[in-house]
Amino acid sequence: MSEWWKSGVVYQIYPRSFCDTSGDGVGDLAGIRSKLDHLVWLGVDAVWVSPFYRSPMKDFGYDVSDYCDVDPLFGSLADFDALLEDCHARGLRVLVDWVPNHTSDRHPWFEESRRSRESAKRDWYVWRDGSPDRPPNNWRAAFSPDPAWTWDETTRQWYLHLFLAEQPDLNWRHPEVVGAMHDTLRFWLDRGVDGFRMDVIHCIGKDPALPDAPAEVAAIPWCALNDHPETHALLRDIRGVLEGYEGERVMVGEVYLLDTAQVASYYGTGDELHLSFNFPPLYAPWEAGAWRERIDQTERELRPRDAWPTWVLSNHDNPRHRTRYGSEARARAAAVLLLTLRGTPFLYAGEELGLEDAVVAEGRRVDPGGRDGCRAPIPWDGTPRRGWKGAEPWLPWPPEREARNAETLGADPGSILHLYRRLLHARRQSPALQVGSWEALDAPDDVLAYGRREGGDRRVVLVSMADTDRGVPLDGDWSIEVASDGAGEGGPYEGRIGPDQGLVLRP
Ligand code: GLC
After folding, report:
1. C-beta separation of 117 from 157 below 8 A
2. Active-site residue numbers?
């Protein structure tokens, strides 16, 4: 087994924002297909494509009305097959986003379920008795101050939705739901996908009593509450579906629990998730102490279980790290960290351009969760349309788009884009960086220092979060393989690191 998902790097594409070829201002599958050379040149191993299923788009695709079709906005199944074939021809694996906790309220399953209390699909969703003025428990829905319950006047019961009212939760205690959802996995596995990113996967098992939550977490049940033992058995069955297929099909779970020990349990004993997101580092400030703690915690919780870590700095749900950390120098040093820690890195499209979040004026905001800024379209070149066809994109462009686009940065060897490429190529050539052991090294408090080793291959990584130069003496002679600002690459390491600098050193 190659275990490509351990050594590889995954690149997340938010399809609405990647590249538009149809001229409607929304990115599409053909647009992704037209940019694969960029990904190969960059040096990533896999793409994860956020949802492109049929959807009323209340949560921009995370409200699915047909798991087995492509929304016409993005193209067709034939476009998907062509994309998959082109990716595979270039050696890129493809993960699709699977949304198992909830469907759209326009999914035929829910439409049938809500028709009457006697409907054959009534129990496919979570319905509860009560009076119209008092929801069954105190949980609140994501993105709003409202209850996680909506009263259905026709059948005079409440239904549960951890997210929008248009995203009713499926009832995974019902065997037909399990079977139908397994079939949706098979649909994509049969087409040849390499695996899935599984949306809020920790939420699928729920305490059947649905008890009130402690006040401090009632507003975030999708984040803090749902850590129910039933989910683990469901995950083992899902793993079984994937293992029925040839090749290495991978489950990457979005476990949105902000406690790494809880996250670790979703790897099971190698029979649940292959990989899980671990968000505490994403929320760490640019401070070496905070990062050291998150890294130590990850090593401490995951290593004993043989659970392989993941690292992510940006995605479609959070402000980009370039925006959070406040400077390109920091974004560059962070890239060194992301691509050299022990585990699988996930890049978010556009971070290789050093993009900041777009400033989205009140009148153009469209996301109920306020996440528009990080979803701004990707500028591909310096022309007014920036490589997009036709209409103004669905969201405004990010800052500095005249200069910060793939073509302009591609022509500048000193750009952040070239830094990402050098890091990805250095990683590909080094077993130590890909799969090696990890060991903390002595360094000043505001500098992270660690060694990676696999057999005879060794690297040392230094990332400074200090304001001024720091001395970091090392045993032996080291040369600079990659520097976040490009300074001194190929030359000897002189025992010092600059402020907000990252260095990959080789013997
Ligand atoms: C996940 C997705 C997010 C979506 C939510 C509901 O957190 O990343 O974008 O809104 O699940 O599906």
Report:
1. yes
2. 199, 254
Encoded tokens for 364 = 């153009």
Q: Is the CB of 59 under 6 A from ligand 1?
A: yes
Q: pLDDT at position 223, please?
A: 76
pLDDT at res. 220: 79
Assess whether pLDDT exceeds 70 at residue 1: no
Residue 199 CA, ligand 1 centroid: distance in Å:
6
> For 434-443, how does the pLDDT look when each residue is reduced to its tens digit (9 = 90+)?
999 999 999 9
Predicted local distance difference test score (pLDDT) of residue 217:
84
Closest ligand 1 atom to Cα of 162? 6
Q: What are the residues facing 125 on neighbouring strands?
A: 170
- Which residue has the CA at smallest separation from atom 3 of ligand 1? 317
CA of 62 to the centre of ligand 1 (A): 6
Say yes or no: CB of residue 99 within 6 Å of ligand 1: yes
Mutate to test the pocket of ligand 1, among 200, 348, 371 (most ligand atoms within 8 A of CB): 200
Q: Which of the four pLDDT bands, split at 50, 70 and 90, describes residue 11? A: very high
Q: Which domain holds residue 480?
A: 437-506
Contact 310, 343 (CB under 8 A): yes
More reliable by pLDDT, 228 or 297? 297
| Mean pLDDT of all residues in 398-423 | 97
- Spatial contact of 474 and 495, defined as CB atoms under 8 Å apart: yes
User: Which pLDDT belongs to residue 222?
Assistant: 73
pLDDT of residue 29: 98
| Cα(50) to centroid(ligand 1), Å | 10
**How many of the other CB atoms lie within 10 Å of CB of 243?**
11
pLDDT for the residue numbered 218: 81
Ligand 1 mutation pick, 99, 160, 199, 375, max ligand atoms within 8 A of CB: 199
DSSP-derived pairing of the beta strands 447-454 and 195-198: unpaired
The verdict on the CB of residue 163 being under 6 Å from ligand 1 is: yes
How many structural domains comprise the chain?
1
Q: Is residue 384 part of a domain?
A: no
Q: What is the CATH number of the domain that holds 491?
A: 2.60.40.1180
Q: With a 6 A CB cut-off, is 200 part of the ligand 1 pocket?
A: yes
Indicate whether 501 belongs to any domain. Answer: yes
Percent of the chain with pLDDT over 90: 95
Q: How many whole angstroms separate alpha carbon 223 and alpha carbon 377?
A: 28
Query: Is 194 contained in some domain?
Result: no
What is the residue with the minimal CA distance to atom 12 of ligand 1? 62
- pLDDT confidence of 329, banded at 50, 70, 90? very high
Is 464 a member of any domain?
A: yes
- 196 CA → ligand 1 middle, Å: 14
- Note whether 196 and 185 are within 8 A (CB): yes
Ligand 1 pocket member 199 (CB < 6 A): yes
Contact 422, 482 (CB under 8 A): yes
